[in-house]
Design a protein that fits this description.
Distance between the termini: 43 Å
Oligomer: single chain
Number of helices: 10
Strand order of the largest sheet: 1-4-3-2-5-6
Number of strands: 9
Shape: globular
Order of helices and strands: EHEHEHEHHHEHEHHHEEE
CATH architecture of the largest domain: 3-Layer(aba) Sandwich
Bound molecules: pantoate
Radius of gyration: 19 Å
Helix content: 25-40%
Strand content: 15-25%
CATH topology of the largest domain: Rossmann fold
Structural class: alpha/beta
Length: 288
């Protein structure tokens, strides 16, 4: 496995011209969720292609009040996991390689990022788009894999690729869960045992939403009440948002939900200072 830190090293590596090159951008602290993205990339790259992962805790997507300094960093363990998954290269740029001190250009997406995490974390998606655009320019992948757990991020990256004509295919990979249903996230490491036990409420609430939708509930307001009632069962959880959105526009569903268009039920819940997100993208009755 090649560990690439500087841009000339990366350019020399990509200059070998191996294709398809499939890219998985991460912020490290790799867990099974990330490893499933890497497996997806490996399958996509096939025997002829190559997989490159980046590990970069991107400062521009954290607000000054957020957890940039404490965000889990696990470089040795990450390298071990990368080796065990057998991919070709990892790009680990120092912050000064990615951002010049007087950098003054930034990408703005101003429709899909208005609500949900974009409303709770102003500036977050500008930072995500900017770093992903830079990484795409540096790595020049044919395809890149993103997790469906960050549904809004995935939608915004797809929009950026469409609107700015990046020649990159965006692949989505399903959320990986702990045995009790909690979506895997690097931030789960912050939870104390009581918070960890309570955090299962997010997937339980989404399970209740799925059941109601499967049984024919089409009223977004009633759906939201059903989900909210489950969330309130956890005394430690403080809901940041609970939203029933159109999955294409990421705007609230007004009127009856049309199964053909699907629905996104998205949650962000604080346990102490840790903010967890999860979602259900329902596209029709299960098993239909
Ligand atoms: O999803 C993440 O880990 C990050 O937002 C990403 C896409 C690596 C950009 O920093």
């Amino acid at each position: 496995m090649n560990i690439l830190r500087e841009i000339p090293e990366l350019r020399a590596w990509t200059g070998r011209g191996v294709h398809p090159r499939v890219f998985v951008p991460t912020m490290g602290a790799l867990h099974e969720g990330h490893l499933s993205l890497i497996d997806r990339a490996r399958a996509e790259a096939g025997d002829q292609g190559e997989v490159i992962v980046s590990i970069f805790v991107n400062p521009t997507q954290f607000a000054p009040t957020e957890d940039l300094s404490t965000y889990p960093r696990a470089w040795e363990a990450d390298c071990e996991k990368c080796r065990s998954r057998g991919f070709d290269a990892v790009f680990v740029p120092p912050v000064e390689v990615m951002y010049r001190p007087d950098a003054s250009v930034r990408i703005l997406e101003d429709r899909l990022s208005r609500g949900l995490c974009g409303a709770s974390r102003p500036g977050h998606f500008g930072g995500v788009c900017t770093v992903v655009a830079k990484l795409f320019n540096l790595v020049q992948p044919d395809a890149a894999v993103f997790g469906e757990k960050d549904f809004q991020q995935l939608a915004i990256i797809r929009r950026m690729v469409r609107d700015l004509d990046f020649p990159v295919t965006i692949l989505a990979s399903p959320t990986i869960r702990e045995p009790d249903g909690l979506a895997m996230s690097s931030r789960n490491a912050y939870l104390n045992p009581e918070e960890r036990a309570g955090a299962v409420v997010l997937s339980q609430a989404l399970g209740a939403a799925r059941k109601s939708l499967d049984e024919g509930e089409r009223d977004p307001h009633r759906l939201s009440q059903i989900v909210g009632a489950v969330l309130r069962e956890s005394p430690l959880g403080k809901t940041d948002y609970l939203a029933v959105m159109h999955p294409g526009t990421l705007e609230p569903w007004i009127g009856a939900i049309h199964p053909a268009e699907g629905v996104l039920v998205a949650l962000a819940v604080f346990f102490g200072k840790t903010r967890l997100i999860d979602n259900l993208h329902w596209t029709g009755p299960s098993g239909a």
